[in-house]
Amino acid sequence: MAVMTSAESTTNPSSPAPAVGRERAIDALRGFALLGIFLVNAGSFASTYFGVGVSDPAFSRPVDHAVRWLVSFLFETKFYLLFSLLFGYSFALQMDSAERSGSAFVPRFLRRLLGLLLLGLAHAWLLFAGDILVTYALLGVLLLAWRGLKPAAATALALALLGMTAGGWGLLAWLVAHVPPLEVPVAELHAKALQAAQAYRASALDAIAQRGRDMAEGVWFVLVFVQGPCALAMFLLGLAAHRSGYLVRVAQQPAHLQRWMAWSLPIGGAGALFYAFVQVGASSVQQPEYVGLAALAVDLATAPLLTFGYGALLLWLLQRSPTGQRLGALLEPAGRMALSNYLLQSLVGALVFTAYGLALVGRVAPWLVVLGVLSLYGIQLAWSRRWMATHAYGPVEWLLRAVTLWQWPAWRRATP
186-205 pLDDT, tens per residue? Predict the structure, then answer.
C-alpha cells in the first residue's frame, strides 16, 4: 500500500480528490488514531471523576481499575500526538497542492484555520469540553509562520518543545518533593465530581454551563501546558517528515519499520507503564504529589516514542499480507473523513451521557464504555466506507473545504 493522505492532492482545487495520488497509509493511520482518541475521550464523557485524582466510588471493582489502567497505558496521551503528526504532514501537502494549482496558500490556510476555530468553539461548548480543534486552529497560525523551516530546523525545534515540556514538569516534581506536602481535599474533590455529574444530567443548558466551568477550571491549563506544546512539536515533525521525504521512504521499508518498533515500543511502553501505574494504580491521595508530577514528566518524554512505535507497527502490518491490505482498506475511509467521525463520536457521547439524551454520566461501568466505543467505531468504519464510495469528502470535511477554498466543492464523487 503506497503512503497517502487526506489533504488536497489535485491541481484543480474544486474537484474531488482522486484515488490516484492519495497517500492511503496516512489515511489509515488517521483512521486508527480515531479509535485511540475515542477511547480516551469516552472516559471523560462517562465519568466526571476523569482526571480528578480520586477514584469513582461507584466503580471501584478490580475490573473497573483494570479497564481504566489499560486505557491509560495503551491510549492516553498517545493518539492525539499521532493526529497532530498527521496534521503537520497534511499541512505540507496542502502547501504543495496550492503551489501546483497556483493558488495563494496563506489566505486559503487562514480560512481553513478560521473554520476549524469556529467548529472547535461550537464543539467545546455544545458537545465536549476537551475539544482539540481550537488548539489546532491557534497553533496552526504558528505552524504557518514557521512554514519555511528546513526539516532539520523543524525537527530541532520540535525536540526542544518536547524536552522543555517534559523537563518543566520534571522540575516541578523536584520542587514539590522539597516542600512540605499539602493535604489533599478528598471530600471537596468528590463533591466537585458529583456536582458536575448532576449538572450534566439536569438539562441541556446546565450541561452547556458545566462545560464552560470544566474549560475554565482545568481544561485550558492542560491544553496550554501539556497538549498545546506537544501538539505543536508533532506538527513540526509532520512537516519535517514530508519535506524530507522520510516518512514515504520509511513506510516502504519493512526492515526500517521493524527497527523503529524495536527501540521505540519498549522505551515508550516503559514510560506508559510507569504513568499508568501512578495515575490509575493508586489515587493521588495515596501517594506524594511529586510522584504524579514525575510520572507525567516521564510520560511526556516517552509518549512520542510509543506514538511512533504504533505508527511503525501499523505501517508494517499494512505491507505484511492480504490481511494487512484489508485492514488498510478498512481504516482508510474513516481516516479520510476523520473530522466528521471525531465530531460524531462527541455527538454520540453527549447524547448518551448528558441531558441531551440518556444522561448516563456516572452510571456506566468502564468495561461497558469500552464495549460501546468499539461498537460505535465499527459502525463508523462501515459508514465511512459506504460514504466515501459515493462522496468526494466527509460531510464536515466538505464544509471546511468550502470555507478554505471559498467556493462549493463537489459533493458527490465523479462517476468514471
Answer: 888 899 999 999 999 999 99
Sign for the CA dihedral angle at 160, 161, 166, 170 comes to: positive
Separation of alpha carbons 136 and 298, rounded Å: 24
Question: Cell numbers at residue 275, please?
Answer: 504513568
Cα angle 350, 403, 98 (rounded to 5 degrees) comes to 125
CA gap 394, 207 in Å, rounded: 28
Whole-number Å distance between alpha carbons of 145 and 160: 18
203: left (phi over 0), alpha (psi -120 to 50) or beta: beta
Q: Which residues contact 195 (CB under 8 A, 6 or more apart)?
A: none
CB atoms closer than 10 angstroms to residue 412: 9
* Integer Cα distance of 19 and 16 in angstroms: 9
Percent of the chain with pLDDT over 90: 76
Cell of 39: 477511547
Q: Please name the residues in contact with 66: beta carbons below 8 A apart, sequence gap of 6 or more.
A: none
Q: Tell me what pLDDT residue 286 has.
A: 64
- Identify residue 407 by its one-letter amino acid code: Q
Length of the chain: 416
Burial bucket for residue 75 (CB in 10 Å: 0-12, 13-18, 19+): buried
pLDDT tens for 6-32 read 444 333 333 333 333 457 889 999 999
Contact 404, 112 (CB under 8 A): yes
For residue 317, pLDDT beyond 60: yes
Q: Are the C-beta atoms of 373 and 74 separated by less than 8 Å? A: no
From residue 79, alpha-carbon distances to 38, 55, 311, 367 in Å are 9, 24, 10, 20
pLDDT of 9: 37
**Calpha distance 349→50 (Å, rounded):** 15
Task: Give dist(CA 374, CA 366) in Å, integer.
Answer: 13
CA distance 221 to 339: 24
Note the helical H segments in 18-78. 24-46, 62-74
Residue linked to cell 499494512: 318
pLDDT in tens, 135-174: 999 999 999 999 999 999 999 999 999 999 999 999 999 9
The C-alpha cell at 161 is: 518543545
